[in-house]
Amino acid sequence: MSRFFLLLLILMAGGCTHLPNTGSISLAQINAWLEADEYGNALATLQRQTQLHPENDSLRSMLLTAQQKAGLYAQEKIARANQLAQQNQWDKALQEIDDARERWPQSAVLRVVRDGLETRRQQRIEQLQLELLLHEGRSLLETARQHRELELVNPGYLFLDWDLRKYQTKRRTVAKKLLEVGLQVQEEGDIRLAQHCFVMAQRLEDSPDVKEALQRLPQIERVEESEEYELQRHQPVVRYASRKVKRQKRVGQLLSEYARVRDRNDLVAARRIMLKMLEINPEHSRVRELKAEQDVLVRQFVHRSIARGDDLYSQERIKEAVEVWEGALKLAPFNKELRNKVDRAKTALKTLQEIKQNPR
Asked: What's the pLDDT tens digit per position in 156-171?
């Protein structure tokens, strides 16, 4: 029997069938939510109660166990989604995560993984489109050979000029697309693929723009014209990561770290990671969205901490009040109200200590 359900039995045996101040929400209801993998409802209720009753060890233990259970559930769903993605079943992979998010909508990990899956699917689409483009370029080069042969065999062919004009237009269009894709993948750091795109574009139309693009490439071994390019799933990629690519990769790593600590409700660690992401890329759309959410959570936490510290202070539990306020200061280091409360409380503690040491 899991630790969580043992806690439920202990509390129920003690006559506590309802959580404090939750009205009709009972331990049995939370148990039912967890059995049905409805982690959003269960965790929201337990988190609210631990905030209302911060000294209740049983509640904190229940919340921790529920978070662990939710984390394992998310890992299982993510593993299944990745497996489906490897099988190119992208819709099913995304649906797997969407189903999990319906049961745990607050999960930052599931949200980040969902974004990552969508990005990977788009990359796969672009990869397939590029394969088709390169194949089209090779087909056009073969068509050129056939046109030359046809002109030799049948110089009086009535539609030869018309066919050639259509063919030349197609060559220019494909060459332009290959140049655009080559510049894009070069920016992403895949120099070998960029070179293949430029070489194929040059063979289709030897334009000044293509020549310039080839000249600006880092010095790597030149591909042979007859060489068939195999995309990175078949062979290593020569990468010269640009500063932009490095930033994107680092933000991606930090987003994963941030999501994990957010799901553990570790706001201090989340704030530290958020500051790193903002330093790297303050304009990142997902980072800005998460920052807005975190600001709300921090304000709520600080508000509760001030009220909790005031309550402790009124009970002359000054040292405990200072600990609560200083915990909030870790999230809001520039909050003047908190800073003043801590300073006054420490002064009071010092005065009390002096009185004890020097009684009159």
From this structure: 654 556 567 788 888 8
* DSSP character string of 209-253: HHHHHHHHS---PPPPTTPPP--TTTS---B---HHHHHHHHHHH
The model's pTM: 0.71
Q: What SS3 class is residue 190?
A: strand
What would you report as the CA-atom Rg of the chain, rounded to the nearest whole angstrom? 31
Which pLDDT belongs to residue 216? 87
Q: How many CB atoms lie within 10 A of CB 192?
A: 22
Query: CA 273 to CA 254: how far, in whole Å?
Result: 7
d(CA 101, CA 96): 9
Distances (CA, A) of 24 to 27, 28, 159, 320: 10, 10, 84, 32
Name which of 220, 235, 259, 251 is nearest 109 in CA terms. Answer: 259
Domain count of the chain?
A: 3
Element (H, E) at 295: helix 285-314
247 and 350 both lie in a single domain: yes
Identify whether 231 is part of a domain: no
| Tokens at 317, concatenated | 């539990």
- How much is the average pLDDT of 58-87? 93
Expressed as residue numbers, the domain containing 320 is 243-357
Asked if 124 and 90 count as a contact pair (C-beta separation under 8 A), the reply is yes
- Looking at residue 148, what is its pLDDT? 66
Is 224 part of any domain?
no
CB 143 within 8 A of CB 174: no
Contacts of 71-79 with C-beta under 8 Å, sequence gap 24+, read 71/109, 71/263, 71/264, 73/37, 73/39, 73/100, 73/103, 73/104, 74/100, 74/104, 74/107, 74/109, 74/110, 74/263, 77/110, 78/109, 78/110, 78/113
Check if the beta carbon of residue 59 is closer than 8 Å to that of residue 53. yes
Residues 47 and 95 in one domain: yes
Helices 243-263 and 267-280: angle between axes, nearest 10 degrees: 170
Residue 14 domain-assigned? yes
What would the two tokens of residue 73 be?
């559930």
